[in-house]
Automatic annotation (TrEMBL):
Lineage: Bacteria, Bacillati, Cyanobacteriota, Cyanophyceae, Leptolyngbyales
UniProt xrefs under Pfam families: DUF2243 (PF10002)
Spans through the membrane: 26-46, 77-96, 108-132, 144-165
InterPro entries attached to this UniProt entry: DUF2243_membrane
Domain of life the protein comes from: Bacteria
Membrane in keyword set: yes
ATP-binding listed as a keyword: no
Keyword set, alphabetical order: Membrane, Transmembrane, Transmembrane helix
The protein's name in its UniProt record: DUF2243 domain-containing protein
Species of the source: Stenomitos frigidus AS-A4
Length: 177
């Protein structure tokens, strides 16, 4: 049995090879926004709502006024960094939207956001929880398990993000981001 090929599909595939759309600006914007939002999630949920730790809680207890001042200052610096990442991500997203040659996809953008949030968890978890030891996700009993779970959530978010981006690129016939 002979397969028929849709001429419009062949034409659009040939045009895509000649003038490939790039997801790179959208991925970069989503990645930076994901890093900022991952930090905000960590700071709002773990530092403020659950109050499991503060930025320097393994260095100075938050049970004294001086310790609470240091930890509040550290949390403020942390949120400032998250805010700056978010502003840069918004600018990158705006700039990507100005380029007609760049591809747009909600699935690629979501994948990049998840990739950024996962990278945040992985990098922050390795640096702050394990290498520097300035705080743990949930100090006390089973703190290593909590810290490893945090790293695992980063790996999971990264994996989902990469799968979303790759699936969209495969469907669109794009070989590179």
């Amino acid at each position: 049995m002979m397969e028929t090929t849709n001429p419009a599909s062949v034409s659009s595939q040939a045009q895509a090879r000649e003038n490939p759309l790039s997801y790179r600006p959208l991925i970069l914007a989503g990645l930076v926004l994901g890093l900022g939002q991952g930090g905000f999630f960590d700071g709002i949920v773990f530092h403020q709502l659950l109050q499991w730790h503060h930025m320097f809680s393994s260095i100075e207890t938050d049970m004294t006024i001086a310790g609470m001042e240091l930890n509040t200052f550290g949390d403020g610096l942390f949120h400032l960094f998250d805010w700056l990442l978010t502003l840069v991500g918004i600018f990158l997203l705006w700039r990507a939207g100005q380029q007609a040659k760049d591809a747009w996809s909600g699935r690629v953008f979501l994948g990049a956001l998840l990739l950024g949030a996962g990278l945040f968890n992985l990098v922050e978890g390795i640096l702050d929880h394990h290498l520097l030891g300035i705080h743990h996700l949930k100090p006390g009993a089973h703190e290593l398990l909590w810290d490893l779970g945090f790293l695992g959530s980063g790996v999971l978010l990264i994996s989902i993000g990469v799968l979303l981006i790759q699936a969209t690129m495969k469907e669109s016939g794009t070989l590179t981001p």
